[in-house]
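Section 3.1: Structural characterization of target chains.
Under the original work plan, the team committed to producing a structural model for every single-chain target entering the pipeline before any wet-lab resources were allocated. The record below documents one such target. The sequence was received from the expression subgroup and is listed exactly as submitted; it comprises 179 residues.
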Amino acid sequence: MGNHQKALIDNTASIIAYYDSPINESEYHVRFYFNPNSLTLVNGKAHYIYEGAYAGTGDKIIRLELLRENNEYKFRVQTRKDDGTYVNTGKYAISNDWHVIEVSWQAGSFAGVNNGAAELWIDDTQMEALAGLDNDTLLINQLRLGAVSGVDTGTAGTMLFDHVTAHRDTYIGPLPPAP
């Protein structure tokens, strides 16, 4: 392939590709290839590489965090609830290679039902599903990908992205072969 999207981190500034195609979505799925590409990430540090956001308020509705723990790269999802707090998935290790990542989010159907959900898939395996979320007042109208926020001093290198796909409903599933 060779046409990878790159996020070169050489300071703490965010590097973001914005996609404004979601329009006040109550359900949203994104899938992409990701390679940490030997990114220098200090043990115990993290930053976000994906956010599904509501641009009007700046609310980060769902986020994918890349962290370094026990000298391993790991992912976890954080999703916002109506009260402004976040719920986290567990942390899941990835190798220093290409991985297909899928993150899905769904708002609760209406007040009091608390049936919102979020999922993390790594290499076509569902790692965790969060359910019973009170998030019925939240919507997504912007996708942000890259070194989105939280980049620490000491983080340096080039992360790679490829085959970004997003849509409103259902699990996206397999992408073309890995880069």
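The chain has one domain: 5-86+99-167.
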